């Protein structure tokens, strides 16, 4: 729906008709789900929802629940349809307008609608399903048995757009520009003339969140960038120079590399390293925040708000929590002292990652930041297997920069979710470089393709590209005499090595 430029939100099926009405929607979609309407405890459809006078589209289970609610018949036929399925459109109507009579769509269901509710027109059928789509233009109620929202339904997006634009008459006027205008208004209303701080990590979410707040309240915002010395080549400079030039944000950088390296000295265990980096990060941010609070106090002011780059998937996964929280719940910043309580400003709470990137571009942020691959909070600290030292970080940064440059030059950025480059500092192997024997470290390439990092597969990077990367690293990075490729999917391997 958002791809059709219509703003949408996800609510649980337990929401009441009154709660829905209170949000004043222009359309409702009932999603699919794994249940059978005959199962005990199956998600029930609150009948009031169909009487709100708001156009409704039911998908798969939502379609069946609608059929049952409206007096149609849902049958346990024992005939499952799963996967790409031939569908015959018998009568297009507004919902299936422009969709060929014979086409395929993605199905995944056991029960079927055997009879449409009275007053409904049957629009399509399949081998196993006499009623694969129905409509009542009069009541503005529609349903399809297949899944229009998946890539495997070639005309799926057309169904969604037909429902939104034709059946429900909703204009497609939601876009990056309208989001920026709306968020700027909201942020101004929330913050008023108070002061606000934001922790920048160098990643896209905090960068875009801070840029929006800057657009809304200008110098009331101060950003804190904790440079832990574990970022990749040029990333700290990109934040301090390119990002600041693009946004005009007031930035305080804390150069904490020594502090982190001292704390990490002698530590090889991955969990220990993660804990130390997390702890030092909190302490460093806490010190910087406290200094800013004192500065504000001296000027007779206070800092009331903290910006956080929470995205919509986090909100949905955590059950849609409320908009204010003690800073302790911040997963990147962690527990600040009790007396440092801030109200949260979360301008990306309703957005997905690709939308955040689009907004970042619209706000004029540097492409290197907007297009950045996911990078873990503990940074290169968990990409050195062994103790983290300044020399090893420099070596890894050089190798990583070569990999990134070559993958980008080969046009592989869209295909690769991320490519950790790992230094096996505890491993040495014999090599021959120049005319002499070397005893150096291996570098591991871990290119992965993924939708959401929960699962991943190793990316089949062309051999020529791998050869170039290997040649360049072994020639240009002293101390490395071997480049190896990780060909493990996730599971069983995680994406990062530590
Ligand atoms: P794994 O290694 O668990 O990684 O397969 C999944 C995704 O999460 C990233 N990652 C992290 N991100 N803090 C973060 O912000 C962390 O401590 C952390 N550890 C892993 C990883 O880069 C991958 O995208």
From TrEMBL:
Root EC class: ligase
Active site: residue positions: 60, 147, 149
Organism superkingdom: Bacteria
InterPro entries attached to this UniProt entry: Class_I_gatase-like (IPR029062), GATASE (IPR017926), GMP_synth_C (IPR001674), GMP_synth_GATase (IPR004739), GMP_synthase (IPR022955), GMPS_ATP_PPase_dom (IPR025777), NAD/GMP_synthase (IPR022310), Rossmann-like_a/b/a_fold (IPR014729)
Catalytic activity: XMP + L-glutamine + ATP + H2O = GMP + L-glutamate + AMP + diphosphate + 2 H(+)
Function: Catalyzes the synthesis of GMP from XMP.
Subunit (UniProt): Homodimer.
The protein's name in its UniProt record: GMP synthase [glutamine-hydrolyzing]
Organism this protein belongs to: Naasia aerilata
Recorded name of the encoding gene: guaA
């Amino acid at each position: 729906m958002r791809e059709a430029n219509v703003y949408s939100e996800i609510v649980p099926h337990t929401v009441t008709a009154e709660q829905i009405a209170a949000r004043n929607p222009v359309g409702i979609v009932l999603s699919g789900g794994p249940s059978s309407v005959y199962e005990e405890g199956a998600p029930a459809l609150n009948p009031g929802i169909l009487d709100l006078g708001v156009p409704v589209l039911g998908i798969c289970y939502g379609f069946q629940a609608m059929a049952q609610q409206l007096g149609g018949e849902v049958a346990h036929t024992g005939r499952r349809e799963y996967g790409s399925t031939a569908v015959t459109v018998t009568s297009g109507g507004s919902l299936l307008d422009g969709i060929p009579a014979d086409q395929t769509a993605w199905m995944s269901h056991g029960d079927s609608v055997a009879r449409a509710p009275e007053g409904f027109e049957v629009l399509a059928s399949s081998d196993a399903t006499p009623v694969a789509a129905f409509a009542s233009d009069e009541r503005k109620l529609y349903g399809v048995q297949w899944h229009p929202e998946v890539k495997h339904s070639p005309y799926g997006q057309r169904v969604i757009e037909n429902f939104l634009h034709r059946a429900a008459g909703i204009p497609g006027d939601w876009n990056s520009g309208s989001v920026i205008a709306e968020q700027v208004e909201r942020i101004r209303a929330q913050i008023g003339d108070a002061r606000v701080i934001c922790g920048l990590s160098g990643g896209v979410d905090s960068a875009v969140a801070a840029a929006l707040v800057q657009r809304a309240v200008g110098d009331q915002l101060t950003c804190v960038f904790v440079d832990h010395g574990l970022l990749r080549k040029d990333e700290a400079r990109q934040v301090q120079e390119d990002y600041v030039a693009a946004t005009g944000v007031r930035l305080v950088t804390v150069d904490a590399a020594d502090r982190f390296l001292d704390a990490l000295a002698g530590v090889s265990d991955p969990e220990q390293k993660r804990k130390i980096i997390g702890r030092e990060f909190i302490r460093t941010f806490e010190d910087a925040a406290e200094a800013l609070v004192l500065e504000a106090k001296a000027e007779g002011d206070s800092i009331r708000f903290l910006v956080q780059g929470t995205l919509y998937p986090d909100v949905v996964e955590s059950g849609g929590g409320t908009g204010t929280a003690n800073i302790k719940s911040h997963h990147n910043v962690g527990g600040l002292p009790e007396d440092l309580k801030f109200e949260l400003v979360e301008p990306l709470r309703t957005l997905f990652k690709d939308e955040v990137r689009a907004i970042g571009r619209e706000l004029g942020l540097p492409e290197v930041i907007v297009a950045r691959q996911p990078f873990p909070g503990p940074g290169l600290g968990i990409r050195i297997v062994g103790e983290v030292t300044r020399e090893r970080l420099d070596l890894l940064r050089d190798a990583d920069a070569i990999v990134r440059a070559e993958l980008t030059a080969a046009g592989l950025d869209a295909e690769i979710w991320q490519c950790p480059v790992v230094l096996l500092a505890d491993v040495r192997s014999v090599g021959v470089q120049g005319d002499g024997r070397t005893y150096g470290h291996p570098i591991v390439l871990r290119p992965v393709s993924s939708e959401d990092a929960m699962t991943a597969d190793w990316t089949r990077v062309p051999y020529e590209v791998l050869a170039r990367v290997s040649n360049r690293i072994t020639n240009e990075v002293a101390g490395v005499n071997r480049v190896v490729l990780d060909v493990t999917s996730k599971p069983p391997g995680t994406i990062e090595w530590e």
